[in-house]
TrEMBL record:
Lineage, broadest ranks: Bacteria, Pseudomonadati, Pseudomonadota, Candidatus Muproteobacteria
CDD domains named in the record: TlpA_like_family
Name the record gives this protein: Thioredoxin domain-containing protein
Entry keyword set: Signal
Coiled-coil intervals, chain numbering: none
Source organism: Candidatus Muproteobacteria bacterium RIFCSPHIGHO2_01_FULL_65_16
Signal peptide: 1-22
Length: 160
């Protein structure tokens, strides 16, 4: 649509923080957690690192300690980490979390509906969502070599 693109272009030209024209709106969802329900919409105004994972995912064993560190490092600047487990059996996720504790929100999507909405192609898959609710970066898998790049992307979205 011409008007939204014109508004984004105008905002960028005036120096306002804006959404890159190629950014897609992050689909909203509501999922159960161990303590209630998480709604993506309620996090508007925060930078969200959304991560889809499964108990059988080898790279997830490395991503969880890293996500804990990112939360510790950037929560006070507005980073929220939300992970979505896609195991059909919640007990599998619980066993994983006993071994790899999460200092962030863990939501459950046993039917894979939210994962399907996000077109998850591999485990883990992560999405960096800006304060306005747009997906700015996507990552499939988790590699040690990519940690610095992802952290840099997080920092760029947290910048004032």
């Amino acid at each position: 649509m011409v008007i939204p693109r014109l508004l984004v272009t105008t905002a960028l030209a005036l120096g306002f923080a804006g959404v890159a024209p190629a950014a897609d709106p992050a689909p909203d969802f509501s999922l159960p957690t161990a303590t209630g329900v998480i709604k993506l919409q309620s996090l508007r105004g925060k930078t969200v690192y959304l991560d889809f994972w499964a108990s059988w995912c080898g790279p997830c064993r490395k991503s969880f300690p890293w996500m804990n560190e990112m939360r510790r490092r950037y929560a006070d600047r507005g980073l929220v980490i939300v992970t979505v487990n896609v195991d059909k059996d919640r007990k599998l996720a619980d066993r994983f979390l006993e071994e790899y504790p999460a200092d962030f929100t863990v939501a459950y999507d046993p039917e894979g509906k939210v994962a399907s909405t996000y077109k998850v192609k591999g485990m883990p898959s992560s999405y960096l969502i800006d304060r306005a609710g747009y997906i700015r970066y996507r990552h499939i898998g988790f590699r040690e070599a990519a940690k610095a790049e992802i952290e840099s992307q997080i920092e760029s979205l947290l910048a004032p």
